[in-house]
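Message: I would love a firmer grasp of how sequence relates to backbone shape in proteins. Thank you; the sequence and its tokens follow:
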Amino acid sequence: MLRSRIIPCLLMRDKGLVKTRLFKDDKYVGDPINAVKIFNEKEVDELSLFDIDATVNGSEPDYEHLRNIAAESRMPLCYGGGITSAKQAAKIIALGFEKISISSAAISQPELIREIANAIGSQSVVVTIDVKKTGLMSNYSIYTHNGQKKHKIKLLDFISEVEKFGAGEIIINSIDRDGMMKGYDLSLAIAVRNKVNIPLTFLGGAGSINDMSELINKVGIVGAAAGSLFVFKGIYRAVLITYDRPKL
């Protein structure tokens, strides 16, 4: 039976961890392997790791670094960044990751979703969609390359395409709420939930466990992901890696 998951989401840059606000102003928050060790002890549902420069720089995933991370992990791992082929995806799964995520590659070559699903199974294929509100409440544009490249395809149309090509999960990441810790975009979450039949995860805006409870109570069984909530403490954003679950 499916249940809601609480998922820390960590951003990697130059083999370190950073946290952004509105996809800018990144702050160094530590070493990925140390973070994995801490989250192991806290019995995290799942951990997502994204190399935010791999696609922008046109570089392949750093397999050796990912191997070292997977070797320390006792929880399900998802990795995204620089994946452009089924062969790369299969190699990452072989290192010990349960899921891979693609973003810009899913837009430029949607058939890749099917190719990867055939290689590693649909349940291991995640498509991450970074979105930004444009004008009216119901209008959202899709961006890639760290929020620098805007795409013309409509969000709900793309979501239908992703599901049709065999993705096992979709992550919706709100650029407008990234690092702001003022709550999820519930209007966006509900609109997407009504359109999708596969598992969904929402990222961007969680500032408290109550925000996660509100997302789950209003939207249903989803993944509630967060970055700042699990790496910062207090108004001065002191780095403190932690984890808690809402009482549902």
About this structure: The domain at 5-239 is CATH 3.20.20.70 (TIM Barrel). The longest strand covers residues 5-13. The mean pLDDT is 95. The chain is about 35% helix and 30% strand.
